[in-house]
Amino acid sequence: MPPxxxxxxxxxxxxxxxxxxxxxxxxxxxxxxSLRGAIEPPDYKRYVLPIIFLRFLSLRFEKRREELRRxxxxxxSEYYTTNAEAARRILEDADEYRSAGAFVVPPKASWxxxxxxxxxxxxxxxxxxxxxxLETTYPDKLRGLLPRIYGGSNMEAxxxxxxxxxxxxxxxxxxxxxxxxxxxxxxxxxxxxxSSEGKRGGEYFTPASIVKTLVAMLExxxxxxYDPCCGSGGMFVQSDLFTKHSHQxxxxxxxxxxFTYRLCRxxxxxxxxxxxxxxxxxxxxxxxxxxxxxxxxxxxxFNDGAKGENGWGAQRIAPDDPRLVVDGERLPLAVxxxxxxxxxxxxxxxxxxxxAGFVMATGELSTSEIARLAVRKALVEGGYVDGVVQLTGxxxxxxxxxxxxxxxxxxxxGGNGFRNREGExxxxxxxxxxxxxxxxxxxxxxxxxxxxxxxxxxxEYRRTSTPDAVPGFCRVAxxxxxxxxxxxxxxxxxVGSTEADDEDVPFEERFPRLLSELRVQFADxxxxxxxxxxxxxxxxxxx
Length: 543
Fold this sequence. Notes:
Helix content: 40-55%
Oligomer: single chain
């Protein structure tokens, strides 16, 4: 996808404060940070995450090898044998490892080998050699994923040795109640790196509670999940968790930045997922041009192009691009804001019967900019807008812009377990939801209970009946009502929220009107000052 801003891709779960896993991951993070040395903070993730990946590959291989040894020794097992040569063939059979999501790790790429050489002055070269060896051994899965980066870096050998020691802790070998500890740590580290990088971190990380909300509402069960701006792949990971690893979902995505693209592939690999993830811009180099997805989950960059002189690149979109046509009408593009382009992209890639859930800056709900309003109107009149959830502005670490979750659907006529929802839209106002994250004085997250509450309303709306209106929280509005509000989709207009909608409009959109109002107020003040001075003069003359 194109260069992204103001966006954070996503840990699949949120640990409760004080839990053992939460404490462990925090301790590991602090220990890793202490080993950064001369590496610039934004670059440190490039050196830490591949080490976690190497540890994962070896750990998965070691666990499968031990499992095979137990099976070989168990008389009731189909693997049982007392023949040393037969046992050796089983232990060296690559297919026996791949079937369990593991890979045979070459000796000189094994974690055992790295640990043994951690204090070798050549450890940076040794790690690079291990990465290269894995890529050449498994080119179909790992090509381009593990570049040689340590030898030419200014990372000190002792700090690299420290990272190897850190991830050699015995805790990684222990059973954590079925938890994939390294997967959890990898996701946690991605989130912490993103948080520390601010705006740059937003290019690959979406807050966990937002991802969980999207997935809980969309309920992906089987079919294709597509994310054309997939960051580190959090939407895919959470979708798989939602199905309890049922293997009924397949994943397709695209990412613009090469490192983030590798980050996503490693994340999927660690979580045992295959994904057809491509590198390139979804704007003008759509790598999945013919794809029609059952589910689309995405967090595109907020207001991409709004601050640059040349916008987001609308001029690169061909006039006959099929994504610009909705129900036979060719729609205009906003040159300085890509939000509506993303919505058209999502709709185009949605199959009949499919549904999309995505994040947008709240201003897109009510902007009157001609091109963006035209797209919003077309989506409403075409019957594609299924629901809108407005959220607080403190869910992202890197921007305070409030966000909204949009849901588009091509199953609004009902069928396959859904009821007919034509002519109506569900609005949920969640601006008052969320609690401060442990250790943060400004960033919030939605609790599991709040996510469940939102998802339950949407589930009832889609599957059984019109939910009862809850003043200030949710209500189903008719299409005529939406028309009456000029196609503004701000939930507060429909659910009876007392707070002014203006608070949720991005500052760059509010500023011209605020400036105009201020000038009027200055003029009124000047006029009032003149009246007061005149009356004071009259009083003075009277004396």
